[in-house]
Design a protein that fits this description.
The structure is a single chain. Helix content is 6%, strand content 43%. Strands 19, 20, 21, 22, 23, 24, 25, 26, 27 and 28 form a ten-stranded antiparallel beta sheet that branches. Strands 60-3-89-88-87-86 form a six-stranded antiparallel beta sheet, with no helix packed on it. It is mainly β and 1427 residues long.
């Protein structure tokens, strides 16, 4: 959207290298198997993250305009750029092609020549120019009309049209619009949008129009207050609806749905067709709607609007007048053909949803007291209506009170002088009562001194009217002697002279007397037609008792023609004098169905003028008839109710909306001000969502500063409540464009932060997303830094998929995924892992706040692997050292807020969700409370919550959850109201801080406590190891590293302790019995080292290798799968000049990072498993890689935040950026499974496993049959030798008395003997061999054979017997242990009562195969022990 004025953020004119070429040895990214690590989170100091693209290098030049694609989830991809100095302002889609425009000469990576407009085909990725004779100037707005395959273009150009042109996508040709275009003032078109029914286009900008004042009928409707419908005519739209709010209305039978059963809702619906605005009949029935007003009504027809609710709609109906019970003959316009039609008993009602309503006119005005509408035909379940109005004969005014008509800005009115009293009489119409006003005057009184009465009827449209004065008959009122004659004066306006007539009120029965016939000007804020009555100059009669009586009844205006022969003024200008033309500004409506050809650069005939063209005339007048090139309308939207909202850069100085700024509404034929006189800055974009109008621009508040400055760049106008609402506190600079998609408002502009309600800023670059349902800022999915000029929807999505979008602007840098410091990772393909950004926005403002909302009770599910470290950005002091020979830790890499520096997973029992507990340098809002430094994030619900109680003041760098649901939080902070210093304990079960179980850490003199690492070892499962920079824990002297016993709640030192500082901890050994500590360490005896090991078994410290081989303090360390002869360490040299990365092979340290450049800071090292393999070498096995994270720079790949190391080369993996566009950093990869296998399992296909199983089973059956036959033969031979003894026979078993006659009998006999009798010698021999084999297997197990840890993972046909028909994929479900189970048997898993496990296979009724998510151990357990 074009903006006339805006503030700007000036970026350096440099190229920013977002991603660089990866190592050419890899055609695709290594496939990391994150699924084996459980849930995986990636934390750091970044606002955006991208995976490396190994094919191309992407650079961004802020002097060009970039076009980006945005997926339904928000991920961004660069498509192409314009020439230097180019800009993209607008876009839209027709079918599968996206069109975009602005001011440029080329587009795309191959620089396709295109003059200001081009197309992009997503399926092929091809840019193309649109012809050779397109607009010769900048383009600001596009509108795609898919129904006609036309692209409407608006801007500032002279060819093919004047600031408006049309591109035909079928003929591939340009043409001028049928109205030629616009000129005057700026001569620019900034917006092209459709009306609510998409039947006409609204053009807005800075231009002038001129309408002929020949007072001919307006196009399609003669009433500017009524929304256009093809089912109306200029005549019918001029008829003012009769107010029926006081009438009795019944609809029978009615729907049982309460949202559609109130018949009164359709008299003047408050909103579009739907609940609360529509009436439906009972299913399967026709319906009768009866309206009784119990007073005399002069009616000319009915207005009916069909319902288009799914499964409902009226097709035919009839109208009967009350009280004469006459079925009326109706005339109407066929909305499809435009032909005049008539009907009586089965009048058709259109089922076309584009037809808002239809008007049905009686053959002549009918005096009645009510109507009955019979809905005789319907579609779907039942008939229904969205609108029902009784049309008057033209206009009216009653002497005894007037109600507001539907679509009218105000009701008719009356005024009087002297005293008037009410008088009632029964009329000649059954069941009606007539009430009039009367006033007495002394005989002989002059007319100027006599009482007077004036009617001010609301007249909706210009036309030829007959005005009648209704004179109540004196017989009914029994006041004939008092009656006299009156003088009636009619002021019709429009330059016509007043009509004066004398009317006798000495009539026996009700009489209507014509008092005027001619043109009448519609009502406005400045003029209204009046009919005045007073005593005649020569009164009739002698009066009674010296008094005359004047009687005031009603006036009726009967429309005779909607075409006015004499000139009339504007409905809002108030002019009642003729003029040659009327000027308009900044707005023009063009019906898409119009076949007219006019010249809008000259005088527009009224035959082509629409009702809403009054907007431009009224706007011109409201601007004081003085406009300039800076005054403009830049955005327009129409609500389904018909109200039109206009935003731009203007100040209204005349009329009823004088003082309104930058946004105004046009409703019921006149301008109305929005609350607080609009906004205090220009509006650039408007988006309508239901009854909420979203507004973007360069404002900060309403014109009267009613929101305390919380409408920064964006605002919501609530149509229902007529009030402004905030979007948090807005954004921190100008908004250029808005778009609605997927239940979100996407905001593009020249800002960097989205502000929450407390004005805390979350980094969003130039693209922010507002969730409509939650009413909050959410993650945009992608991240971009720059001045974004356009956001718009792409092609329509496939069913079930989300809407894609396109974004354009001057990009400084971009990331595929936007997230404030945290993303979730899962296994992907060769293109990299699947990345899910954090769904909420963290902010940078950290302050002391009140207690936040609590969290519910959860079950512990933790990681015990290495903990990452990254220091706080603002550290001003160095650590106090106790050894002169030890060096200090290097300066920490920047971690500007918001940054997430550490995380741990934990299962929430109440939701069964595995949540991430994150810590760092950030703040966030939860339950109207601002919290900081630590949070609980639920990736499934995309929600965040705070820890209850006191707040952390500082930065968190380590978090850990033990088996007792205790959360250890470490870093550099204090806890309000407690003695905690750098370390705090939180009880997740009780949802409170535990301030009594753990004594606080104490710093060395002149320094502060900093905790870098919190871990535990399987060797000591009841202990937590805390490491960092501190002197002692409680009263225990344990510098830099200390053990906390979670059972005894006591601190103890590790062996003889150390001196120095520790930055990172890892573990080695099969049971993690060796602790590896890295940093700057001095051991007992004074020897210094940077990597040391502690043996839990003998409580001793020892250096790892020759300390001289490591050039400086270590900031990150990891052990390769517990192998103490495979350790990686990284840090910076002692002088801080350069980074290093070393490898320990069990003998010596060697450098493996010589190509790392001086700006590199490594925060974490961690081994990750692969789905594929790499070439094996002596450093890293082929099934894994080392993931190096931080802020990395290397001569081979440039800059990155994470790289993978295969033992020989670096493969760039991820790049991050900060909110300011600088290179970000990754601090920690954390995961839920503490122990996982790197060995890649090879699974047989399910079909093959089934075939092998069938073959083995068949072989076993055949073997059993053969053994049975042989055993039977041997038994019979022995029987023949032995002497027969009948007493030895078993009466119940005669199987040995007969020779088996078939194979089945042989099998039966053998099986029976085998099962019931004593086993034969062959079976005994086999059993002895099996037992011997089993014992041999126990004595020397095959490490690669099937066991409890790889149950159902058949690697060979023999393994398939154990795990028959294993699925190719594992499907798990949670369960809990009902009882404890020792699990000492081979392949069994031990249980403790209440433990949560994951069921991997439950096909056996007795034993289930499970996994302990805390340890990663797998095995079988009794099924009955689980629930």
């Amino acid at each position: 959207m074009h903006s006339q004025s805006s503030s700007s953020i000036r970026w350096p004119s440099i190229f920013f290298l977002a991603t660089l070429l990866a190592n050419p040895a890899f055609a695709s990214l290594p496939m990391v198997d994150f699924s084996r690590m459980g849930q995986v989170g990636l934390a750091g100091a970044f606002a955006g993250l991208s995976l490396f693209n190994n094919a191309t290098t992407v650079t961004f030049d802020p002097s060009v305009s970039s076009l980006l694609a945005r997926t339904g989830e928000g991920a961004l991809t660069t498509l192409g750029t314009t020439n230097a100095g180019g800009s993209i302002q607008s876009g839209c889609a027709i079918n599968e092609i996206f069109y975009f425009a602005g001011s440029f000469s080329s587009i795309g990576n191959t620089s396709v020549s295109a003059s200001n407009i081009a197309s992009y085909t997503p399926s092929s990725g091809v840019f193309a120019a649109l012809g050779s004779n397109g607009p010769n100037g900048p383009i600001y707005s596009l509108y795609c009309d898919a129904s006609t395959s036309q692209l409407w273009v608006g801007g500032y150009f002279t060819s093919p049209g004047s600031s408006v042109a049309i591109w035909n996508t079928k003929s591939n040709s340009w043409s001028a619009p049928p109205f030629k275009g616009f000129i005057g003032d700026g001569g620019e078109v900034f917006s092209i949008t459709s009306n609510a029914s998409e039947s006409s286009l609204f053009f807005a900008g800075s231009f002038l129009t001129s309408f002929a004042a020949n007072a001919t009928a307006l196009n399609n409707t003669n009433n500017p207050n009524i929304p256009y419908s093809p089912g109306a005519t200029p005549f019918s739209s001029s008829l003012v609806p009769v107010p029926l709010e006081g009438a009795q209305i019944l609809g029978q039978p009615s729907s049982s749905n309460p949202q559609f059963s109130n018949i009164s809702n359709i008299l003047c619906p408050a909103g579009p067709d739907g609940p609360g605005n529509t009436w439906l009949a009972a299913n399967g029935n026709g319906a009768v709607i009866t309206v009784r007003d119990f007073s005399s009504i002069n009616a000319y027809g009915v207005r009916l609007g069909n319902t288009f609710q799914s499964g409902f709609g009226t097709t035919t109906f009839s109208v009967t007048s009350i009280p004469d019970n006459t079925v009326q003959t109706l005339s109407y316009v066929n909305p499809s053909t435009g032909q005049n039609m008539t009907c009586t008993n089965a009048c058709p009602l259109s089922t076309d949803s584009s037809i808002l309503y239809q008007d049905f006119i009686f053959t002549a005005p009918v005096t009645l007291t009510g109507i009955q509408i019979t809905l005789s035909g319907w579609t779907g379940e039942a008939p229904g209506l969205h609108m029902l109005q009784l049309l008057s004969s033209g206009a009216f005014a009653s002497s005894n009170g007037n109600m507001k008509s539907c679509f009218s800005p105000n009701p008719s009115n009356t005024t009087s002088t002297d005293q008037w009293t009410t008088k009632d009489a029964v009329t000649n119409i059954p069941a009606t009562l007539q009430t009039v006003l009367v006033s007495t005057v002394a005989v002989g009184t002059s007319p100027s001194q006599a009482p007077s009465f004036t009617w001010q009827p609301y007249v909706s449209a210009s036309g030829q009217y007959d005005v009648y004065l209704v004179i109540p008959g004196c017989a009914d009122f029994q006041d004939c002697p008092l009656r006299t004659s009156v003088q009636v004066t009619v002021f019709p306006g429009g330059g016509s002279q007043p009509w004066v007539s004398t009317v006798s009120q000495q009539v026996q029965s009700d009489t209507t007397t014509l008092v005027y016939s001619g043109p009448i000007v519609p009502s406005s804020t400045d003029f209204v037609t009046t009919i005045s009555m007073t005593l005649a100059n020569n009164p009739e009669g002698t009066g009674q008792d010296g008094q005359y009586e004047l009687v005031a009844g009603n006036v009726a205006l009967v429309l005779t023609s909607a075409n006015v022969a004499s000139a009339v003024g504007s409905g809002s200008s108030g002019s009642n004098t003729a003029s040659s033309s009327q000027h308009g500004f900044g707005f023009f409506e063009w019906p898409l169905s119009s076949s007219a050809s006019i010249d809008a650069t000259g005088t527009i005939p009224n035959t082509s003028e629409t009702s809403l063209d009054m907007i431009s005339i009224d706007l011109y007048n409201a601007l004081g008839a003085t406009t300039s090139t800076t005054t403009s309308v830049t955005a327009v939207a129409q609500h389904p109710s018909g109200t039109v909202y206009l935003g731009g850069n203007f100040q209204l100085i005349s009329g009823s909306t004088s003082g309104v700024s930058n946004i105004v509404a046009f409703k019921s034929g006149s301008f109305i001000s929005l609350p607080n006189n609009g906004l205090n800055g220009p509006v650039t974009s408007i988006v309508l969502s239901g009854n909420e109008l979203y507004v973007g621009g360069s404002f900060t508040d309403t014109s009267t500063a009613s929101t305390q400055g919380k409408l920064n760049g964006v605002a919501i106008y609530d149509i229902s409540s007529n009030s402004w609402k905030t979007m948090g506190a807005g954004v921190n600079s100008v908004v250029n464009s808005l778009a609605l998609a997927n239940g979100q408002i996407v905001v593009a502009g020249n800002f960097t932060e989205a502000l929450n309600s407390s004005a805390a800023g979350a980094p969003v670059g130039g693209l922010a997303t507002w969730n409509i349902s939650t009413g909050s800022w959410v993650n945009s999915g992608g991240f971009v830094v720059g001045n974004m000029t356009f956001i718009g929807n792409g092609t329509l999505p496939v069913s079930g998929q989300k809407q894609t979008q396109f974004v354009a602007g001057n990009v400084r840098t971009m990331a595929e995924y936007g997230s404030s410091g945290l993303v979730m990772l899962s296994s992907g393909g060769s293109t990299g892992p699947l990345v899910t950004p954090m769904g909420i926005q963290l902010t940078s403002s950290v302050a002391n706040v009140s207690s936040p909302a609590t969290v519910t009770k959860r079950h512990s599910h933790v990681r015990r692997g290495p903990s990452a470290w990254i220091s706080h950005l603002n550290i001003g002091t160095l650590f106090t050292r106790q050894s002169a020979t030890s060096s200090v830790l290097p300066p920490s890499p920047p971690a500007p807020a918001p940054a997430v520096l550490a995380g741990a997973f934990w299962t929430n029992i109440s939701t069964s969700h595995q949540v991430a507990i994150i810590g760092g340098n950030f703040s966030f809002s939860s339950s109207s409370t601002t919290s900081s430094a630590v949070a609980i994030y639920d990736p499934i619900a995309s929600s965040i919550s705070a820890l209850a109680g006191a707040q952390i003041n500082g930065v968190v760098r380590a978090v850990y959850v033990d088996q007792k649901q205790q959360l250890f939080v470490g870093g550099e902070f204090n806890l309000t109201g407690t003695s905690a210093n750098g370390l705090a304990l939180y009880d997740l079960s009780a949802q409170q801080w535990d301030t009594s179980s753990m004594q606080p850490l104490q710093p060395s003199a002149g320094s502060s406590v900093i905790v870098h690492s919190i871990t535990s070892s399987m060797y000591k499962s009841d202990a937590v190891i805390v490491a960092g920079s501190f002197a002692q824990a409680g009263s225990v002297s344990c510098q830099a590293i200390c053990l906390f016993d979670t059972t005894l709640n006591q601190w103890s030192s590790l062996g003889s302790g150390i001196q120095g500082d520790i930055s990172s901890v890892s573990y080695a050994g099969n049971n993690q019995e060796i602790l590896i500590a890295a940093g700057s360490i001095t051991l007992l005896g004074g020897s210094t080292t940077n990597v040391a090991q502690y043996n839990f078994a003998n409580s001793t410290w020892a250096p790892i290798g020759n300390s001289a081989e490591i050039p400086g303090p270590v900031t990150a360390v990891t052990v390769n799968n517990g192998n103490s002869s495979s350790i990686f360490a990284a840090g910076r040299t002692a002088d801080g000049s350069s980074p290093f990365m070393m490898f320990w092979d069990g003998v010596s340290w060697s450098s493996v990072g010589s190509s790392l450049q001086g700006t590199t800071n490594i925060s974490q090292l961690v081994m990750v498993p692969l789905l594929n393999t790499h070439s094996a070498n002596s450093i890293i096995e082929s099934d894994r890689m080392l993931m190096i994270s931080g802020a990395l720079s290397d001569s081979s790949f440039g800059s990155a935040s994470s790289v993978l190391f295969d033992g020989s080369s670096f493969i760039p993996f991820m790049a991050t950026v900060t909110a300011q566009g600088a290179l970000g950093s990754i601090s920690s990869l954390f995961y839920s499974l503490a122990n996982f296998s790197f060995t890649q399992q090879q699974f047989l296909a399910t079909g093959i496993v089934i075939l092998i199983s069938i073959a083995i089973a068949a072989g076993v059956v055949f073997l059993l049959a053969l053994i049975g036959i042989l055993w039977t033969l041997l038994s019979r031979r022995d029987d023949r030798v032995a002497k027969y003894n009948a007493s030895d026979d078993d009466d119940d078993d005669n199987s040995l008395q007969h020779r088996p006659s078939s194979l089945l009998e042989h099998i039966n006999a053998a099986t029976r003997t085998t099962i019931l009798g004593a086993p034969g010698p062959l079976i005994m021999a086999g059993a002895e061999k099996d037992e011997a084999a089993r014992k041999a297997t126990i004595a020397e197990s095959d490490p690669f054979g099937p066991d409890g840890s790889n149950y159902l993972r058949a690697e060979t046909p023999s393994d398939a017997v154990v795990g028959t028909m294993a699925a190719e994929e594992e499907f798990t479900r949670p369960a809990h242990a009902r009882y404890s189970f020792d699990g000492t048997g081979e392949g069994e898993l031990p249980l403790t009562a209440g433990l949560e496990v994951e069921v991997l296979d439950d096909r056996d009724v007795a034993w289930w195969y499970t996994r302990n998510p805390q340890t990663g151990q797998e095995g079988v357990v009794p099924a009955a022990y689980l629930y």
